[in-house]
Design goal:
Layout (H helix, E strand, L loop, with lengths): L14 H7 L9 E7 L6 E4 L2 E7 L1 H13 L4 E6 L17 H12 L4 E6 L12 E3 L2 E3 H18 L3 E4 L6 H11 L8 E6 L6 H7 L19 H13 L3 E5 L5 H10 L4 E5 L1 H12 L5 H15 L3 E4 L2 H9 L5
Parallel strand pairs: 1-3, 1-4, 1-12, 4-5, 5-8, 9-10, 10-11, 11-12
Antiparallel strand pairs: 2-3, 6-7
Length: 328
């Protein structure tokens, strides 16, 4: 056969040519950095399972928020740890909780930063589940009121957006109704719409001490084998009033991100979760891969699959690499 007229390598000969025809681009404006808020003062303690991530007291969270803005990252996603845990996760909706205090302090110090709060009970319950329990059953509808109270407490503290991650049926509609009833029509909801019962949450659960004390979360989080169901979950959350929908985790579910992207024109977020982050960090420490290239390749794949927004612990590191023109 004659040699093909078109040679694909022509446009790969130099870095400048490769940049010219690059199809997918990462920018700082698409990234959200998660932060872990704890009670106390002057606390900045590295999380063993998440190297480079920290438990932050409110004052330290404000310092971190200022650094986030300096990096050009538009938003943070706050998770909290309570002083104490109980069956109903009461500190999740306490006006004096760590997250509520952090929201207020960050918005006072850095008003331009978008402050998003995770709305769930698992960090606050002594049993580690995301809802009210009856024996070993997770009670869906009784949980909704507590999620409403949690979301409202965050918004009253000054949150710009709430992100329910519990996967209870009807929680987006319940939170929307609650916020609207209180006059917070302008507050958007970013729904963890397709959240899978994944093994990749391990480092996060260690960080917030939320491992279930009995059973698992498969009765409310999605079966990793299912993709069509993800589209149904997304459609339900949109019908209930979600403004942004999310797929979590990201890397093992790139096909789901692509499928959801085809099903809706709403902004689509993907969560590059703790296990995905920790694997790259661990392999890099052992010298098994190039951390910077692996990080950018992973984040680019999430964007290429269709995500508009990427929640990632790599946010600050990625921005530093992008600013210097690094390419994976």
């Amino acid at each position: 056969m004659p040699f093909p007229t078109y040679r694909t390598r022509r446009l790969r000969e130099s870095p400048a040519l490769r940049r010219l025809v690059q199809e997918t681009h990462l920018t700082p404006s698409e990234l959200i950095l998660p932060l872990f808020i704890v009670p106390g003062h002057g606390i900045r303690q590295e999380i063993a399972s998440l190297p480079g991530q920290y438990h932050l007291s409110v004052d330290q969270a404000v310092t971190e928020a200022k650094a986030v803005v300096d990096h050009g990252i538009p938003a943070v996603l706050l998770f909290g740890l309570p002083e104490s845990k109980d069956p109903l996760g009461r500190e999740a909706y306490s006006p004096t909780g760590a997250v509520q205090q952090a929201v207020h302090a960050i918005k006072q110090a850095v008003p331009a930063l978008v402050v998003i709060t995770d709305v769930c009970l698992c960090e606050y319950t002594d049993h580690g589940h995301c809802g009210v329990v009856d024996g070993e059953r997770i009670v869906n509808d009784l949980t909704l009121e507590l999620l409403q109270r949690t979301a409202l407490s965050h918004v009253e503290a000054g949150a710009d957006m709430v992100a329910p991650s519990d996967m209870m049926d009807g929680r987006v509609g319940a939170i929307r109704a609650c916020l609207d009833d209180k006059g917070y029509y302008q507050i958007p909801i970013m729904a963890y719409a397709a959240k899978y019962a994944s093994s990749f949450y391990g480092p996060f659960r260690e960080a917030v001490q939320s491992t279930p004390q009995f059973g698992d979360r498969r009765s409310y989080q999605m079966d990793p084998a299912n993709a069509r169901e993800a589209v149904r979950e997304v459609q339900l959350d949109i019908a209930e009033g979600a403004d942004i929908v999310m797929v979590k985790p990201a890397l093992p579910y790139l096909d789901v991100i692509a499928r959801v992207r085809q099903s809706t024109d709403l902004p689509l977020a993907a969560y590059n979760v703790s296990g995905e982050y920790a694997m790259i960090k661990a392999a890099a420490r052992l010298g098994w891969l190039d951390e910077e290239r692996a990080m950018l390749e992973a984040l680019t794949s999430i964007k290429r699959a269709g995500a508009d927004i990427i929640i990632t612990y790599f946010a600050k590191e990625a921005v530093r690499l992008l600013e210097r023109g690094a390419a994976w």
